[in-house]
């Protein structure tokens, strides 16, 4: 008898669980609340909504869910810098460095949230001052651990190998980079793009110094290795020369060989430019022959020009395809000859514009792609799914696009690249927002390399007075 009752209770519990799941799945307001981070920004109202849905009390649940949405949007509107600072703190792994400081910052943040949920914005603003200070301190600590200490370790290893003696320029560059990053961490830990680029460059300089020192020690210990090193270098140059269909004189000095290779590459570029100039001249000739048909001339010229640009872009995309994992990045060529680098694997924290640490390597690959298209302006586009209201999603997409733009600005600070950003919110989906898989695809960053515009003929727009 006991087994039968137990079995009956189990079946009833399973039935209630099924009802709860169905209620949750059919609770759009709860999904909206989660999209605006109500679990963190309005935990009391969110929990009350979830509990009410579990009890199949839809009216009560909707009321609490709507309150959670309102509270979360109030937090996002009034304390955006505090939320972003906390997100950076969490993304930097501060808890692994200073758990005590992290806990104090989280407690201060929770007090701000509690005041917003109680409806006391004035009190929340007062509490936010302490929360901002603590999260800022935690950010600085985490940034030093994540970005400064790796440079210091790399420099220490280089010094141990004798990098300061054998490669003083690279060693000095790494040391200067360490000082620069440390100053920037203290003054502006939010400049993550610049910090990551400076840190990476400094570590590379330290490792270069270490490698050169290792080679120097080997050659000093075994002078006979100098010959093997020279032969290896000559072999590398011969491989490059073979690809350029260039015969190198074996009696030529290394400097002369480098000069010959450089000149051959320059000649290839010159020939390429001549071919491009010839194609453009043909376009101009075609335009001239059709001078009486302005509309036709313009459309044919544009079509010919776009075809040329597309062919060039297709060749470069074929090169880039080897760099990227298609599960992380997709490359597209539009009908307007724009190239789209779709960053599928930048997984921003929910409702945040903070780039996860693991995504910076992917952005560096994207930077190499941008390098290949040196004549194109860059536009960073942010997109979200449809969860959350329009204003929230629009703002979020703009902030995410701006964050990526700031990284690229720092990466190309010496190149004077034209880089802009724009957010489209939920307005340009590429998949069905009704399904989780589709929403995941819609949350994306597109880096668009804009096709150069064909220059108008010198006499374009001129009219003859009658």
Key attributes of the depicted protein:
69% helix; five-stranded mixed beta sheet; flat; 17 helices; 60s Ribosomal Protein L30, Chain: A; alpha+beta
Describe the structure.
The chain has 466 residues and is an alpha+beta fold. The chain has 3 domains: 139 residues, no CATH class; 70 residues; 131 residues, 60s Ribosomal Protein L30, Chain: A. It is 69% helix and 6% strand. It is built from 17 helices and 5 strands. A 5-stranded mixed sheet has the order 1-2-5-3-4. Strand 3, helix 16 and strand 4 form a beta-alpha-beta unit.
Provide a compact summary of the structure:
The chain has 466 residues and is an alpha+beta fold.
Number of domains: 3
- Rg from alpha-carbon coordinates: 30 Å
By secondary-structure content and strand pairing, the structural class works out as alpha+beta
Work out the number of β strands: 5
Principal-axis shape equals flat
Mean of all residue-level pLDDT scores: 81
The biggest sheet amounts to: 5 strands, mixed
Beta-strand content bin: 5-15%
User: N-to-C terminal Cα separation, in Å?
Assistant: 109 Å
Specify the helix fraction band.
55-70%
The SSE order reads HHHHHHHHHHHHHHEEHEHEHE
Q: Strands of the biggest beta sheet: in what spatial order?
A: 1-2-5-3-4
Write down the oligomeric state: single chain
Q: How many helix segments?
A: 17
> Low-confidence segments, ≥5 residues, pLDDT <50?
1-26, 460-466
